[in-house]
Amino acid sequence: MPILAVLRNGLNLGAVCAFWQRVVISLEVLWGSVRRRA
After folding, report:
1. Which pTM was predicted?
2. In which domain, by residue range, is 14 found?
């Protein structure tokens, strides 16, 4: 299972509001792209 799916599921189960879910997912995508370039 991809890490983003696990992260999104955890945020949903934790009742995190949609705004913060987008912030966390966006940061994870950004971190992944930076990590791949290095």
Report:
1. 0.72
2. 3-37
H or E element, residue 25: helix 18-37
**Is 21 in contact with 12 (CB distance < 8 Å)?**
yes
13-25 core/surface letters (b: 16 or more CB in 10 A; e: else):
eeeeeeeebeeee
Is 38's pLDDT higher than 80? no
DSSP state of 14: T
Tally of domains within the chain:
1
Say yes or no to pLDDT of 1 above 80: no
